[in-house]
Model the fold of this input.
Amino acid sequence: QVQLVESGGGLVQAGGSLRLSCAASERTFSNYAMGWFRQTPGKEREFLAAIIRGGGSTRYADSVKGRFTISRDNARNMGYLQMNSLKPEDTATYYCNRAYSQWSWGQGTQVTVSS
Done:
């Protein structure tokens, strides 16, 4: 099964930016729509953004639309999430996975936005 490793999280002030990366262990990653999700303790995992396998179409949750941008590099088995205008409520652990019918989840990367 494909293994996913997220990175790029950290501590940032409100209004700042971060770029998250997602490394997939196999080339089959490029065969699927990819998504980014986030989760805070005690809450269900939340869908944020998805990009089709060819990268030509994207969709976003209303909570991040206009602030976050999803992209991918299939040649490198990589996915990305550019996050701008971060807010304290964006604080969460962020995960990448298939947009639908997810594989096993990785460890995620922690994003903390201070006010």
Observations:
- The longest strand covers residues 18-24.
- The two ends are 39 Å apart (CA to CA).
